[in-house]
């Protein structure tokens, strides 16, 4: 919480701690920026009329910094003109409350924003995971699990699995496989595709049966388990 009025600090902190939140307070902008750099905050409450840095400038700086650009910000200020609200939201704030305010309304807005952020993070995590049958492919970490057991793959094996599993049922020639994973792996050639698929099947164990050879054409990942 970035607020130079100690009475408001104490009031808000009291109500947040009662709801099991942990709260850090800053009296001015530079102190707030230092705190954000060394802590992993879930949300920032930001006053606008502060000594030193103006709250709008702090909001801009927080949004420019990769370490803080995704942290939700609620502006809590006595400046309630429409132009002030617009400026605050345009600077990157997620919500805007004017003083005086109800602590219960503030708590409700905090809860709503944190719930929305949690849902967005879960959705983002799901996009980084490709789940098909008992195989889980972590696209961000380049990791593969089969029935929750880690499987160590080479770069080529991982990229072939990632590509085929993302398009179950579709048949791809060896050249199409190479063309579609180009940029991820420069060392695979049409001559080595078969070798990589053989190694991939072996490492996947029983799950290797999902990669089907289409004689005279290439490979496909089965659309449904055999």
- Give a quick account of the main beta sheet: strands, pairing sense, barrel closure: 4 strands, antiparallel
Order of helices and strands: HHEHEHEHEEEEHEHHEE
CATH topology of the largest domain: Rossmann fold
Widest sheet, order of strands:
4-5-6-7
Shape: elongated
Helix fraction, binned, reads: 40-55%
Helix-strand category: alpha+beta
Q: Can you tell me the CATH superfamily of the largest domain?
A: Response regulator
Strand content: 15-25%
What is the domain tally? 2
Q: On the 0-100 scale, what is the average pLDDT?
A: 90
CATH architecture of the largest domain: 3-Layer(aba) Sandwich
Low-confidence stretches: none
DSSP summary: helix tally? 8
What does it look like?
The structure is a single chain. With 226 residues, the protein is of the alpha+beta class. The protein has two domains: 6-123, Response regulator (Rossmann fold), CATH 3.40.50.2300; 129-221, Arc Repressor Mutant, subunit A, CATH 1.10.10. It is 45% helix and 16% strand. It has eight helices and ten strands. It has a four-stranded antiparallel β-sheet with strand order 4-5-6-7. Helix 2 (29-38) packs parallel to helix 3 (55-64) and helix 6 (155-165) crosses helix 8 (190-204). The model has no long low-confidence stretch (mean pLDDT 90).
Secondary structure topology:
Layout lengths: L5 H13 L10 H10 L5 E3 L8 H10 L8 E5 L4 H9 L4 E4 L4 H25 L1 E4 L2 E4 L4 E4 L2 E3 L3 H11 L6 E2 H8 L8 H15 L6 E4 L3 E4 L5
Parallel strand pairs: 1-2, 2-3
Antiparallel strand pairs: 4-5, 5-6, 6-7, 8-10, 9-10
Helix pairs in contact: 2-3, 6-8
């Amino acid at each position: 919480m970035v607020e130079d009025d100690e009475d408001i600090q104490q009031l808000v902190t009291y109500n947040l701690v009662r709801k099991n939140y942990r709260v850090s307070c800053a009296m001015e902008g530079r102190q707030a920026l230092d705190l954000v750099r060394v802590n992993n905050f879930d949300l920032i409450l930001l006053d606008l009329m502060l000594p030193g840095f103006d709250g709008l400038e702090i909001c801009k700086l927080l949004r420019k910094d990769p370490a803080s650009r995704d942290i939700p910000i609620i502006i809590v200020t006595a400046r309630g003109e429409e132009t002030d609200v617009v400026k605050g939201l345009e600077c990157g704030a997620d919500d805007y409350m004017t003083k005086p305010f109800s602590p219960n309304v503030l708590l409700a807005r905090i809860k709503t924003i944190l719930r929305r952020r949690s849902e967005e993070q879960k959705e983002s995590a799901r996009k980084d995971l490709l789940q098909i049958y008992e195989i889980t492919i972590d696209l961000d970490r380049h990791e593969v699990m089969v029935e929750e057991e880690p499987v160590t793959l080479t770069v080529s094996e991982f990229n072939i699995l990632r590509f085929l599993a993302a398009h179950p049922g579709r048949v791809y020639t060896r050249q199409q496989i190479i063309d579609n994973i180009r940029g991820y792996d420069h060392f695979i050639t049409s001559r080595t595709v078969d070798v990589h698929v053989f190694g991939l099947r072996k490492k996947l164990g029983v799950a290797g049966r999902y990669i089907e050879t289409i004689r005279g054409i290439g490979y496909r990942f089965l659309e449904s388990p055999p």
